[in-house]
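agent> fetching stored inputs for the zinc ion docking request
agent> found them:
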Amino acid sequence: MTTEKRDYYEVLRVERSASIEEIKLSYKKLARTYHPDVAENKADAEIHFREINEAYSVLSDHDKRAHYDRFGHAPPSGGGFGGFGGSPFGDMFDLGDIFESVFGMGGMRGGPNRPQRGQDIKETLQLTLEQVFTGTERELTVNTYQDCSTCNGTRSKPGTKPTACGQCGGAGQVKAVTRTPFGQVIRTAPCVACSGQGQTITDPCEDCKGAGHVFRKKRVNVKVPPGVDSGNYIRMSGLGDAGTNGGPPGDLFVVLEVKGHEVYQREGDDLFLEKAVTFTDAALGTEVEIPTLEGPTRIKIPAGMQSHTTFKVRGKGLPSARTRARGDLHARVIVMVPTHLNEKQKQLLKEYAGAGSQEAQGSNGRSWFGRIMDAILG
Ligand SMILES: [Zn+2]
Ligand SMILES: [Zn+2]
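agent> prediction call returned; pasting tokens
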């Protein structure tokens, strides 16, 4: 919860000079991350999602963006922007409630200048299965908002001071008198003109355009232990956005995403793969090589093996993230039926089919069967 509306550029994690394409791209990325349908922390995501949409509705509109660049969150004189200024809601509404419901502000508890913790940042890190197996160290470039070093976050041009807001006399709050069927209600609400700050920046800092913070890319080294899975995250304390008014920085959450693998499928710490063998190998039995994450190993195919039989290779799965104990590797062996047979092979298979099972398995069936196999195997 913030008592002050965040800077729209900060919300969308773009620079003030960002093109409309950059804004759109960043908006899409953030909307995906914070969409309440996919996010883990629904309540938190909903607040973010609303904030992102509001920022995008302004920054994607040329006129609204130009106005925002000049005046920030203050409504244009004459009202209309976001419905504030004048009393578009009539006398029946309590101004405090309108602010709470529209801005999501819990009033101005603690005053506008109280220290605020910086925002948490969420970054996604993609990993291959091989990296999950060994653990890895990766460098991430993270976009964070840091205090502007020119004005130290004060938003005013060095050497100048903000003046008291003319609208609220520096209180940051205004008294709103409303008539209701139950009588007159007097409530205080944050001053719209100064966003509850009580001050007007008359000479904004040129480097941050009066925002008090600047957008900066930061390189972060992330150590990923072995055995992690998609959806796991690594919390890096203090590596999020800078706090305001001396508040602590937010945290960086690195959300892990394990990419699919062309050979293995993963289920927990176990790995699954499919291995194709010829039907002659399945019938006669053999030994085949299968890959593991540590190099190839061999498994024995017994004679007369049926297709889709699964063999377990103990301890050749992934290490558990908690105990480091290894999962198993499961090899599902698929029997392939040849699609192209030459005339000799066809003839022998027809003989085999005609001979019937009794003869095929009889005392001299073995050598006869072997001739078919030789022919098929070439
Ligand atoms: Zn500055
Ligand atoms: Zn004011």
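agent> quick read of the result: The radius of gyration is 34 Å.
agent> awaiting further instructions
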